[in-house]
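Quarterly update from the structural biology core.
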Amino acid sequence: MPRSPGQGSLFERLDPDLPLRRNRTRQDVATERIRAIKRQLEWILNSRHGSSLSSPGLGLRDLNDAAIGTVDLRQQVCLDIRHAVAQYEPRVRIIEVKPLGSTASSLDLGFRLVCLVPLNHSEQKVEIDLFLHHQGRQVNIT
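Predicted structure, tokenized:
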């Protein structure tokens, strides 16, 4: 049986705590799809470029490597995010990736992903904030 876009992984759909599909509202389904996309984006963007033998382009480059030979680190990371999301998250159509203003720490980088996501039988504009934290080099998505 083919999986329709955005329903989550097999294990997520087998979760007994989730309400039955026929009992969920359109808003519940949309919220679940956005949550699934955010989890997938965190997985993609927390991977390091070149660390997967089967998909060497998966993830972001090391920020130290990205800064070599570039004028603006933020613009280079925007391009890397755009490429990684376009390549590995088919439910998202990117409109724009832009750097955010200053974050809590001067070593952290923030970005806003503006994209189109299929929700309730139409494409909806969704904005997702990404924060690359210097400590632990983790990407958090809000």
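The CA atoms of residues 49 and 57 lie 6 Å apart.
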